[in-house]
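tool_call: predict_structure(chain=1)
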Amino acid sequence: MSRAKISAVPGRCLATVALLAMTLLASPFSHANSLNDIKARGKLIAGVKKDVPLWGYQDPRSGEISGMEVDLAQSLADRIGVKLEVVGLRSVERIDAIQSGRVDVLIATLSDTPERREQLTAVMPHYYSSGVNLLARKEENFREWMQLKNRKICGRRGSFYNRPVTVKYGADIVAFHSLDWATQAVRDGRCSALIYDDTAIAALLLKPEWSQTFEMPMTTIFATPWSIAIAKAEAGGPLDKVISSAIITWHREGHLIRIEQQWKIPATAFLRNMRAVWSKKSPDGKWFCGSEITAATPPECL
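tool_result:
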């Protein structure tokens, strides 16, 4: 593992096709060409999370950021043939980091939503997926989402699910800038639970200090795939294509599954399914998903 350093998503295909169409309809003449700039500079600047253990976490003593997504950023830099510089971000900082040009690319637990498609380019295919669940003390006995009504629930600023959970289930979401602060608040009893990605909660519960007292009690909701993101103007351009090609290779060769295993992240059906479909061949011997993303790419490949 370099240092700088749960489930499949049923019913996602139609939404993914619509989102893909938005990208493919972008004018091929409107994109920038930051890939040339990256090569000329000799460095890829990647935005990664700095407060999510196993995916992107900054050691408070050394300042070093490490995690699965940092490894993916390094793999992408190697593919382009340049060095890597990582910029640690919190959730609320991600979109601005791309729009301001602070980073070239985001590999930062970014769920792919229509709202975000208005702000940036989500590179296809998706590279990971998660849903939303709770980290709660076992004594709370949460079992149904409607039990959140009028309960104080810790969360993170910038998470797309904060508002719908508030509106639909009546939760009182207390949104923190940092995951560290949010987890500390639920540990201290200042919140009844933490609302967060189910994959990350599962990883936390591998640790005895969490699993002895806490659980992930709910049925996962809002299952959403993750995208690597670049500037909106880059849609269809060279940077979009080289990243897309990298993700295809990662799925087809099992690279994402290997890194997931190296970081001891609980195995996801999403990665297993994506590897299977990208490794599948048609009766004529050609790749079922093709070798690049086009308007004809089967939805299950996205």
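agent: The domain at 3-130+224-301 is CATH 3.40.190.10 (D-Maltodextrin-Binding Protein; domain 2). Proceeding to next step.
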